[in-house]
Amino acid sequence: MNINFTYLPGDGIGPEVGAAALEVLEAVASKFGHDLNAEEHLVGGAAIDARGTPLPDETFASCERTGAILLGAVGGPKWDHLKGADRPELGSLLPLRKNLNLYANIRPCKPYTALIDRAPLKRERLEGVDFIVMRELTGGIYFGDKGRDEQGAFDMCRYSESEVRRIAIKAFDLAMTRRRKVTSVDKSNVLETSRLWRETVIEVAKSYPDVELEHLLVDAMTMHMLTRAQDFDVVLTENMFGDILTDEASVLCGSMGVIPSASLSDGKMGMFEPIHGSAPDIAGQGKANPLAMILSAAWMLRLSFDLGAEADAIEHAVEAALAGDHTTGDLGGGLTTFAVGQWIAGYVGR
């Protein structure tokens, strides 16, 4: 099979963790008999420096053509003086999400056994935790009209029924492959958009009689996620709430450096990236933890190419690396960024 995808190294530590992930993908391709073709392009701050824009036309064209995107990270203080869409993040990530219709963002929360004691909660709060947050990614307050006038500033939050329906269907479909429970998070006691959200989710749930549906207000969810995380299976929520809750969930895993994410459209179109940022303070030092990027590559294989066995091989190798301390210093190991990738590639190739 030809694994053809767009590789966007990005800024800061992005190229380092990306190089480690490519090393692992090469090992997977070799072992399973695939041809690997990564179309590398500039994005974010690196693209601003070289091309004067955070999302060059050829970068977007490649993303649209391959339909599978592996992204390192974008942004950094070097470009903090820029405004609006001239900034690396706003000028690249949001247009990619919107123009490629990447409306469904998923992030896992399943603590690795080797990392449970690194999390701030007691072990008994974390053992058995295994849920996925399904976040609506192209609507809501982040994409609404915004501006300032003589009286202040405004950001409009708006959702259509069709936007809520399609993300709800993805959440229920995912729940059918797992433990058959959806927890929908909103603020329907205050917000009209949340009342529409809840009404639409209830309507979608009628087509999934085997899936349990639970509703929680977002402020209550921030508490329940820390006190009964084992109860959740698929957590469904809107854009801003999901942004906040997924960062909270990352703490349960012991390190943001081991959490991948996927932003999906209909069909096989997807963008895969670690949840961490560009960490410019450690860029170029070989200290960056590449595991989240490597796991994002595994998700790309599974979700964009239907290569489940190949993705499993990577994930098993990551578990072995964590169990044996074949990691970077942030996780207690002594390997460099690329050396971690080499170790995992070697494990995959056995």
SSE blueprint and pairings:
Elements: E1 2-10, H1 14-32, E2 35-40, H2 45-51, H3 57-66, E3 68-73, H4 88-99, E4 104-109, H5 123-126, E5 131-136, E6 146-149, E7 152-155, H6 161-176, E8 181-186, H7 192-205, E9 212-217, H8 218-227, E10 234-237, H9 239-252, E11 260-264, E12 270-274, H10 291-305, H11 308-323, H12 337-348
Parallel strand pairs: 1-2, 1-3, 3-12, 5-10, 8-9, 8-10
Antiparallel strand pairs: 4-5, 4-11, 6-7, 11-12
Helix pairs in contact: 1-10, 1-12, 6-7, 8-9, 10-11, 11-12
Textual characterization of the structure:
The model has no long low-confidence stretch (mean pLDDT 96). The protein is built from 12 helices and 12 strands. The protein has 350 residues and is an alpha/beta fold. The longest helix has 19 residues. The protein folds into 2 domains: 175 residues, Isopropylmalate Dehydrogenase (3-Layer(aba) Sandwich); 133 residues, 3-Layer(aba) Sandwich (Isopropylmalate Dehydrogenase). It has a 10-stranded mixed beta sheet, sandwiched between helices. A two-stranded antiparallel ribbon has the order 6-7.
Q: How would you name the CATH homologous superfamily of the largest domain? A: Isopropylmalate Dehydrogenase
The residue-averaged pLDDT reads 96
CATH fold call of the largest domain: Isopropylmalate Dehydrogenase
Secondary-structure-derived class: alpha/beta
Largest beta sheet: strand ordering? 2-1-3-12-11-4-5-10-8-9
Indicate the radius of gyration in whole angstroms. Answer: 20 Å
Q: What is the terminal separation in angstroms?
A: 20 Å
- Order of SSEs: EHEHHEHEHEEEHEHEHEHEEHHH
CATH class category label of the largest domain: Alpha Beta
CATH architecture annotation name of the largest domain: 3-Layer(aba) Sandwich
Instruction: Count every beta strand, where a strand is a DSSP E run of 2 or more residues.
Output: 12
Q: Compute the number of helices.
A: 12
Q: Helical residue percent?
A: 40-55%
Residue runs with pLDDT of under 50 for 5 or more positions: none
The backbone outline, from C-alpha atoms, is: globular
Describe the biggest sheet? 10 strands, mixed
Approximately how much beta-strand content do the residues carry? 15-25%
Estimate nothing, just give the exact number of structural domains.
2
